[in-house]
Amino acid sequence: MTDDLAKCQKERDENLEGWKRAKADLLNYKKDESKRFEIVAKFSQEGLIRELIKTLDSFDLALAALEKEGKAEKGIYLIRAQIEDTLRQNGLERVAVSVGQPFDPNLQEAIVSVESDKPSDTVVEEVERGYLLHGKLIRPARVKVAK
């Protein structure tokens, strides 16, 4: 009888340990899924934001053309600023590029190498702005680089 009792206690302990492991695994799974869900929710608007970036580019081209003619209206600048503010509130930030800084292939795309008085592999001109969404590069800055 003592053997039966010891056998039952051993079996109980094994089952209890198995149950505890399964419960811990379930809790870890729930945490992992919660993190994945947050990431999916954070980047679910990436496609929309990419399209709106193109709209910002078009605004910039239109403003540049209007400035040449001297006709740029304040309202157009305000609309562009509102779009940019809305995108910023949703996690969009510009990739900072300045002339003379070293070329960074992680954030920039060299579209052409040009002769320049600047040191080799430095940015000569930003042709198209780059953007990060919640810290993730969604479009590299397109730049001209010194030879």
Automatic annotation (TrEMBL):
ATP-binding found in the keyword field: no
GO biological process: protein folding
Highest taxon listed in the record's lineage: Bacteria
UniProt cross-references to Pfam families, sorted A to Z: GrpE
A GO cellular-component term linked to this record: cytoplasm
Family (UniProt): Belongs to the GrpE family.
Protein name: Protein GrpE
Naturally occurring in which organism (per UniProt): Candidatus Wolfebacteria bacterium GW2011_GWA2_42_10
